[in-house]
Amino acid sequence: MAARLLLRSAFRAAKTCRAAPVPALTRGMAAGGIPTDEEQATGMERIIMKAMQEGSDPYNMMKPKEYAGSKVDPHLVPSITNKRIVGCVCEEDNTAVVWFWLHQGEAQRCPSCGSHYQLVAHELPH
Length: 126
Ligand SMILES: [Zn+2]
Hints:
- One of its GO terms (molecular function) is metal ion binding.
- Helix content is 25%, strand content 20%.
- It is built from three helices and five strands; from the N terminus they run αααβββββ.
- The strands form two sheets. Strands 1-5-4 form a three-stranded mixed beta sheet, with no helix packed on it.
- It binds zinc ion (ZN).
- The site of zinc ion (ZN) has 7 residues, from loops.
- Zinc ion is lined by residues 88, 90, 98, 110, 112-113, 115.
């Protein structure tokens, strides 16, 4: 009964008063635009962004670049030791990987396809 009375009075109130237009929600950033990632990054994220902008590689990710794989422009393989095992997918649709040891020094060829790989010294992040 009480619920019915409340519902009825609410319905009457809704009928009599018109809804005022609700102003659009505004945030503090709306006036100046949306901040970029660089502007709002803090802590470790900010340190990493700055390091990446300066060209250093804070996590030793060494994002792969396009190498020709030729003797002049070999695929660079980072290693913390003087050798590393490398898997070469010789052709794009190959299902088998050719594994071989890559040693420090001059560029070596993949025994199957002939692409050149060269070991480069790399340090672990601190
Ligand atoms: Zn290969």
